[in-house]
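Note to self: keep these together.
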Amino acid sequence: MTMDCPACGSPVTLKVGPDRPLSTSLSDAVLAAEEDEHIEVTRDCWDCGWHETRALRVTSIDTTAGDETAVERAAFIDEITDELAAIGSVDTLEETLAAIRRQRATNPATTDTDDPTE
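Structure:
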């Protein structure tokens, strides 16, 4: 989504904060927000100097139920990824990958597929 400066029509940059990486998109910040969290959105035009800061506050969050299995699987993947990221040794990571591959090769029933009939 491209935004133009209301003063001169040039493209503006958008920064989501506070305390978020520069690469954070507004949609990612909103979807990750907790109730009563504040999100600050800053727009800047580098051509004419126009600047705007908006403060958003999440007052409530309504969600609909999703696929429970997919949600559980995503949570496990996040947990596994966090654990792997904490491992500093390349040797340990290589051993872990090898163990996973051995386990999948010896027990094909643990190999997930997108086909619900399998």
